[in-house]
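Predict structure. Input: Tyrosine-protein phosphatase domain-containing protein, 63 residues.
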Amino acid sequence: MAADIGLRVYNESDKKSMVNVFDCVNKMRGDRNGIVSSKDLYKYIFKVLKNITDSASTSDSKL
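Output follows.
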């Protein structure tokens, strides 16, 4: 869920900056307290978003 929100934020931005994972999770906590409860989950979300944004920028540069 956090990766999905992060991807939406990225797609709505200029696509040149990384998404703040901590801010995405804090926004989600308004509805579900404790949704990301460990450092490992934050790392996982960051890696997912980084892989998506890296592959998107690679495909954009090939055009």
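The helical segments are 2-12, 21-28, 39-61.
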